[in-house]
């Protein structure tokens, strides 16, 4: 729910063909990506393409996912952060139940800023919320305000995580490390994730902490992973953690393995390198120098996690004072003048096939693995010869071979009914993306 299970794509590469390179503007639709990875990757690669205006139309199942996408993209575009600083903030907020104190302070302060952008107190040039209903924007503002307050006051997210594990495993809870080892060695490893170590995976399955570094200990709760946030009086109500507890946030930025590098790196190190690469390229419009990456770490830590013990819960719940309000002149984003990110409510999916304004509107459409039933609603919105990219289920550890076979066949059936042509042979057991063309 909170992250994807396929690598980020440069959408301009997916769109471009020989007769399309002269296009001055592009519109893409992204459905259920759960994070901003495709926008970030496309922005980072823009210097490799002709100058174009690109409008990203984003649809997510929940307002919390919309808020997280805004936060993650905003972190990448924050010019006040150092390169490594922004990289680690991004990864921790995306995938850790607990944050380092520096990351938590940034989250509290930045959530305040983003709440002001929703109310248009502060202008955010790349963000467009005009398609959201007033109640959706109100809820978005509540979410950012809740994050700011919950980061200061603490929420028992590790307890929520443990309850989910207990409910999932039931009588196997006392033998959970064996269950985690089985999922890793018998399912995830054979499917091809070469960088994810058993130590990282097991630690995440136990505590929800995916990315760790020697420079700092995660001690503060990450409230961006909570659901169903609503205001009540002077406070808020929220649901417990409802996200993924079996697969992990390792299958996006950590999938890109450097075949020429013989040093075995953790998934954390690969993800750090890839995020650092895209932030550098967004800022400089130049290729990334590999020497900037801290991949020279002591070999003794490359096959393990850095943090081996959970912090005291007293630290997690320690209350902080309220942060100061952002001043208008401190708006931190770098300029991306050719980019707009336009968020739509989930109900828009039902309008695509009936509204003339959406007829053959998009150059490309990306669809998450759990949103494929929406294909009949959106196929008429794709331009002739446009591409639909569909995320597959290769890295879902709860699925066995027969489940992947069934999903592959169901996807082929639904795309045939929609009149889509398969560009490359695919199977969920071997691939992460299936590509189709609108004839």
TrEMBL record:
Origin: domain of life: Eukaryota
Pfam families named among the record's database cross-references: DUF4470 (PF14737), DUF4471 (PF14740)
Domain Dynein assembly factor 3 C-terminal: 127-422
InterPro entries: DNAAF3, DNAAF3_C, DUF4470
Subcellular location: Dynein axonemal particle
Keywords: Cilium biogenesis/degradation, Cytoplasm
Family under the similarity heading: Belongs to the DNAAF3 family.
Protein name: Dynein assembly factor 3, axonemal homolog
């Amino acid at each position: 729910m909170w992250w994807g299970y396929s690598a980020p794509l440069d959408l301009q590469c997916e769109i471009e063909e020989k007769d399309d390179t002269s296009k001055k503007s592009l519109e893409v639709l992204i459905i259920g990506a759960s994070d901003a990875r495709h926008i970030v990757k496309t922005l980072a690669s823009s210097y490799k393409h002709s100058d174009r205006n690109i409008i990203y139309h984003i649809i997510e199942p929940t307002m919390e996912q919309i808020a997280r996408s805004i936060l993650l993209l905003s972190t990448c575009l924050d010019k006040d952060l150092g390169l490594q600083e922004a990289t680690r903030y991004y990864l921790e907020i995306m995938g850790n139940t607990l944050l380092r104190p520096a990351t938590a302070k940034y989250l509290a302060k930045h959530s305040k800023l983003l709440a002001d952008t929703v109310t248009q107190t502060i202008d955010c040039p790349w963000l467009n919320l005009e398609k959201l209903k007033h109640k959706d924007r109100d809820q978005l503002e509540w979410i950012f305000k809740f994050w700011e307050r919950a980061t200061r006051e603490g929420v028992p997210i590790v307890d929520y995580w443990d309850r989910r594990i207990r409910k999932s495993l039931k009588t196997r809870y006392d033998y959970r490390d064996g269950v985690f080892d089985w999922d890793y060695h018998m399912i995830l490893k054979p499917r091809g994730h070469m960088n994810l170590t058993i130590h990282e995976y097991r630690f995440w399955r136990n505590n929800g902490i995916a990315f760790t570094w020697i420079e700092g200990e995660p001690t503060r709760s990450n409230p961006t992973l909570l659901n169903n946030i609503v205001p009540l009086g002077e406070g808020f109500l929220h649901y417990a953690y409802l996200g993924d507890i079996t697969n992990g946030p390792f299958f996006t930025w950590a999938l890109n393995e450097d075949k020429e590098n013989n040093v075995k790196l953790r998934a954390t190190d690969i993800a750090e390198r890839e995020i650092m690469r895209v932030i550098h390229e967004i800022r400089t419009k130049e290729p990334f120098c590999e020497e900037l990456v801290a991949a020279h770490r002591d070999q003794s830590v490359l096959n393990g996690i850095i943090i081996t013990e959970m912090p005291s819960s007293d630290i997690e719940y320690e209350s902080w004072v309220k942060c100061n309000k952002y001043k208008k002149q401190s708006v931190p984003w770098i300029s991306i003048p050719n980019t707009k990110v336009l968020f739509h409510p989930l109900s828009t999916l039902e309008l695509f096939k009936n509204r003339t304004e959406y007829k053959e509107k998009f150059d490309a459409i990306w669809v998450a693995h759990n949103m494929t039933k929406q294909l009949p609603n959106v196929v008429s919105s794709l331009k002739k010869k446009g591409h639909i990219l569909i995320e597959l289920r290769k890295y879902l550890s709860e699925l066995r071979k027969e489940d992947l076979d069934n999903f592959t066949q169901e996807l082929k059936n639904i795309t045939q009914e929609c009149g889509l042509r398969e560009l490359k042979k695919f199977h969920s057991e071997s691939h992460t993306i299936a590509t189709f063309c609108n004839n």
